[in-house]
Design goal:
There is one protein chain. The chain has eight helices and ten strands. It has two domains: 3-59, no CATH class; 69-243, Oxidoreductase, molybdopterin-binding domain (Sulfite Oxidase, Chain A, domain 2, Alpha-Beta Complex). By secondary structure, the chain is α+β, with helices and mostly antiparallel strands. Strands 2-1-10-5-6 form a five-stranded mixed sheet. Strands 3, 4, 7, 8 and 9 form a five-stranded antiparallel sheet that branches. The mean pLDDT is 92. A hairpin with a 5-residue loop joins strand 3 and strand 4 (137-146). The chain is globular and about 55 Å long. Bound molecules: ligand MTE and molybdenum atom. Residues 79, 132-134, 214-215 line the site of molybdenum atom. Residues 77-79, 81, 130, 132, 167, 169, 172, 201, 214-215, 217-220 line the site of the ligand Nc1nc2c(c(=O)[nH]1)N[C@H]1C(S)=C(S)[C@@H](COP(=O)(O)O)O[C@H]1N2.
């Protein structure tokens, strides 16, 4: 069977199962094809599974909508963050010269990159919309190094299934699957709207996951961990968001 017709069959199966015999049947089907998100337990679990499985089958390679320069928001809104603390202040005073991005886990060559090194890697940019789950949004230009390039540089091992990313704010950590980690619009950004990424918007380094809601675009990134299993991180639900009642997969 061709790849496409197999995909159509599974997707149709998921849709039929969700209507006819309920979400649980859809979840069973998703499980057979390895499309279970890490927060699949609990009362919303079957719904989360259906969303994630269907999205991955239908839109794995789709691009987030890109906008023209004239559509950029005149006044982008920086969502307030909790106080950033002394360590961050020290970095800020030193113009972030000592900021590092550590990369560990299932990699051939664990590494730690300075911002200067990250800036020397291939640079990509896009004008996309960031949407908060609370309803507001803005359109901005983001520039940085594609996450896929960093993964290639450290030698991501073939069994890697997720990238966990952490902030200098310990409460903010997320993970994404390989469809998003290798996606061309997923960038470790250090620039916004043609200038340095402001602190309010996550500077000096922010993960920009363009196909998901704003909370997946974590600010002040310090560490990436490549893994085949999310169970040993936090409460085992994949990231901080499901621990707080939000979906791990936040496809927008
Ligand atoms: N480290 C960190 N990252 C974060 C947040 C935060 O409070 N701390 N807020 C998240 C939420 S809920 C949203 S909607 C976006 C907001 O992005 P903005 O400030 O560029 O509008 O950042 C996300 N990344
Ligand atoms: Mo948000």
């Amino acid at each position: 069977m061709s790849k496409l017709s197999r995909r159509t069959l599974i997707t149709t199966g998921l849709t039929v199962a969700s209507g006819a015999s309920g979400l649980v049947a859809a979840a069973k089907l998703a499980k057979r094809y390895g499309l279970i998100p890490p927060d699949s337990g609990g009362i919303y679990g079957p719904g989360e599974t259906l969303t994630y499985a269907a999205q991955r089958l239908l839109t794995r390679h789709s691009l987030a909508r890109e906008f023209s320069r004239s559509q950029m928001s005149a006044k982008p809104f920086a969502n307030e963050v909790a106080p950033l603390g002394d360590e961050f202040e020290r970095h800020k005073q030193g113009a972030f010269a000592d900021w590092r991005l550590a990369v560990d886990g299932l990699v051939a060559r664990p590494a730690s990159f300075s911002l200067t090194e990250l800036r020397s890697f291939p640079r990509c940019s896009h004008i996309t919309m960031i949407q908060c789950e609370e309803g507001w949004s803005y359109i901005a230009e983001w520039a940085g190094v594609p996450l896929s390039h960093v993964l290639e540089r450290v030698g991501a091992l073939p069994q890697v299934r997720y990238v966990v990313y952490r902030s200098i704010q310990p409460d903010w950590w997320e993970s994404i699957d390989m469809a998003d980690a290798l996606h061309p619009q997923t960038l470790l950004t250090y620039e916004m709207n043609g200038g340095e990424l402001p602190v309010g918007f996550g500077g000096p380094l922010r993960m920009r996951v363009s196909r998901q809601l704003g909370y997946k675009s974590v600010k002040y990134i310090t560490r990436l961990t490549l893994t085949d299993n999310l169970k040993r991180f936090g409460k085992g639900l994949g990231s901080a968001s499901p621990e707080g009642g939000y979906a791990w997969f936040a496809g927008a």
